[in-house]
Amino acid sequence: MCVFFQDISFFVFAYLHGDAIAQTTMYFSDNQGYRFQKYFHEGQAQFLYSDYPLNHSLGLPFNYSGLLDIISAPGQKGVLIFWFKKNLLISKNAELLQGDFENKIYNIDMNSKLELAALMIPRPSTSPVPLVIVSNPHSLGLQAVIYENSHTYDGNIEYKLNISLRQQQHYGRADPSFTSSIERPTMSTVTVDIANKEISCVDLKPLTALISIGCDLEKKIVIRNEISACNKGILDPVTLQNNYSYVIEKEAYSFDFQTEGSTEDLVVPYPYEKLGCPLLVYYNTPWKPVVELWRDGSFEEVIQAEYVLLEVNGLFTYTYSLTARTALCSSQPQNWTSIIKERGDIGPLNWDRENYVSCRDPNNHVPLKWPDVPYQILGGPTDNKVTFDQRNGFYIFLISIVDPYYSYCHLETIFSVYVYGAFPLPMIPPEITIILLMLAILLSVWLAYMIPKVLRTEWGHRVQGLWASLGRTCVSHAGAAHALKRPRIVSK
């Protein structure tokens, strides 16, 4: 049974709490609750409106006889109306606790936060004491601020409570031994209550929401494509859409990440519907993609976290500008070859936040045996970039965010690049060309030294005489030919 006081007097009204509204029985006491009897009313009644401006007047009176029925309108709690002879008796609980987050599920991804708000209306002449509790403080931290927001029509103060939730590790106020592992998703609830609320018939329940600290499924990554091969007229989008395919030379690809190449050329259909026009990259310029984070169709930020690339068709005609040494690795960094070895012959080929280990992690004790191998991780603390070999053509990359402290989601996508500006490789290897050039230079130097020396000998004088004789013969023949062509002058 729930008991409430209509006023400071001997009259007490009570009803059974929990029954269906239509079946609830009212009880009445005129001796401060020492003795109750069923409440029976006979006379007239009037409706009382609760919304402004109708609450300033009463409805038309009507006859009423029998036990009182309790009518509860949606959203109206704790309001009972009685027309008792010459008095209108109203029981009204003025306390209110309301929030749109009640009984809902929310998600907080890594490096994200959640803002909630609740409204509080205390009893007159009192100030609420908000109570905000999280069930898993090892993972979820909070900040709460309360302030006067407005006033109700009857003069009560409306307070607003702003609640900011984020991972406990990012607030920086908890001891590391208190917080849970940030690398694994967790769950928690947040509950809002009024600590100094009074006992009343109205069940002023706390507000509770479920918080999932994990992947935000609305997130995705997008590769910025401001300059494409179609924009610059190098490729025709109409041609790309018409079942276009391209050829990868057998010397340029291998599916086991080896550099020996394959036995035959590979014909690859270009999926224009999925990739659109490829990015345009000059072969001789170090490059890395601009990776954007989008959530629910809106741009969030440019991602600075660590990520890796994989050419899906096995092209290996590119490398990286940094090595393990120049990337300042203290242990041997991972690469696609080591990922394949760890995977073995079964399972998908994944390099992501679940199996990534930084070469600068103090807990990584793999010795740095090969400091000059290419460093295959982009983003993060380094300015590592991709450098392409002297080859024009398409590259289709899978990009995967591997930083375990950026998001709980497996953020990855596929995009295409078209490399241009590389001249065809010469037919003669450059080593042979250099050797031939050096031999020609040495021969010229030798001839410049030997010819004057030979000309001073008897044989040299004979050669000079022979050349002189040939010269005079050529001159005489040229003079005769010139005389024959000269016109004669005839005098008359």
TrEMBL record:
Q: Family per UniProt?
A: Belongs to the CATSPERD family.
Q: Which residues form the CATSPERD beta-propeller domain?
A: 5-45
The protein in question is named Cation channel sperm-associated auxiliary subunit delta
Q: Is the Disulfide bond keyword given for this protein?
A: yes
Q: Which residues form the CATSPERD/E C-terminal domain?
A: 243-458
The compartments listed are: Cell projection, Cilium, Flagellum membrane
For biological process, the GO terms are: flagellated sperm motility; sperm capacitation
Instruction: Name the InterPro entries for this protein.
Output: CATSPERD/E (IPR028751), CATSPERD/E_C (IPR053814), CATSPERD_beta-prop (IPR053813), Ig-like_CATSPERD (IPR055451)
Q: What does this protein do?
A: Auxiliary component of the CatSper complex, a complex involved in sperm cell hyperactivation. Sperm cell hyperactivation is needed for sperm motility which is essential late in the preparation of sperm for fertilization. Required for CATSPER1 stability before intraflagellar transport and/or incorporation of the CatSper complex channel into the flagellar membrane.
Query: Could you name the domain of life of the organism this protein comes from?
Result: Eukaryota
Q: Main location per UniProt?
A: membrane
Membrane topology term: Single-pass type I membrane protein
Output the Pfam families linked to this UniProt entry: Beta-prop_CATSPERD, CATSPERD-E_C, Ig-like_CATSPERD
**Which keywords accompany this UniProt record?**
Cell membrane, Cell projection, Cilium, Developmental protein, Differentiation, Disulfide bond, Flagellum, Glycoprotein, Membrane, Signal, Spermatogenesis, Transmembrane, Transmembrane helix
The organism of origin for this protein: Pteropus alecto (Black flying fox)
Which ranges does the record mark as transmembrane? 432-452
For the CATSPERD Ig-like domain, which residue ranges apply? 95-213
| One cellular component (GO) term of this entry | CatSper complex
